[in-house]
Amino acid sequence: MFEVIKTEDRHCEKHDLDWVCEFTKFASRTLESECPKCLEEREAEEERKRQIEFEEERRKAAVAAKRKQLEQRISSSLIPDKYLTRSFDNYRVETDAQGRALETTRRFAEHFDQFQRTGAGLIMIGRPGTGKTHLACAIANALIEKGATVLFVTVSKMIRRIRETYRRDSEYTEQQMIDSLRDVDLLIIDEVGIQRGTESEEHLLFEVLNERNSVFGPTIILSNLTVEEIKAYVGERALDRLREGGGKLVVFDWGSYRGNVADDADLPCADSVVPLRTESRLPHQRPFPMGD
């Protein structure tokens, strides 16, 4: 407490208030008290500013945390860098069939919660370069923005990583690998049928699809095979798993899409990926270390 050395009657014009000013000594300085109402208003204003600063810092922290979570979901999705910028808006439609494919995939992303209730997925088949991966990754990118977990993997890499668990020095078990594939919100399996699968590979693919079906996990299959060929490759049992709950078959039966967009200046390039991709891939939430 500072010692009051004198007092003085004063009047505050602003508040039309008579009050007693107190003079106190602090070191070599003499301090004067202020009008109680002025003091109250000044303290209230300072508190308001502190609250604004606090809320702004909290908002920045929330944005940073959300961004970090987004980067982690992007990184752990293993979506190829080229496709991190693919969206429904930058998919070029020139035919009615392409328009239907766009609408089907957009609807899948927009109503994903409904597909999660039934486990329904998509089977996207057609010749190479027709835009299957573009639209599949457009779905993935849209869902990641909403907070969903996605894993993009080729069937050969998936089978290889599962088989690596058979080694004695493997860090994970086969079931842990399959659980990792089961537990993501959306699994995208690319290049199905690019090489002839063995009975063992067909069995593993069925196991993955069956596990996801058991928890109503939607799966997207990408393949260059025809309808009959995809049936022969994945087997009727696995195909039935994809069809359950209203799964859709999307046929890409037009010419190569790549030639149409090769010189498209509006289609994002590598420079657009830099802000999206962290310096190194983060480990996936579950033990499915497929990136390295």
What is the fourth-level CATH superfamily of the domain at 78-273? P-loop containing nucleotide triphosphate hydrolases
Q: How many angstroms does the end-to-end distance come to?
A: 66 Å
The fold-level CATH name of the domain at 78-273 is: Rossmann fold
* Fraction in beta strands: 15-25%
User: Roughly how many Å is the radius of gyration?
Assistant: 31 Å
Shape: elongated
User: Tally the helices: what do you get?
Assistant: 10
| Uncertain regions spanning at least 5 consecutive residues | 278-287
Description:
- The chain has 292 residues and is α/β, with parallel strands linked by helices.
- The chain has a domain of 196 residues: Rossmann fold, CATH 3.40.50.
- It is built from 10 helices and 8 strands.
- The strands form 2 sheets. It has a 5-stranded parallel sheet, sandwiched between helices.
- β1 and β2 form a beta hairpin.
- The radius of gyration is 31 Å and the shape is elongated.
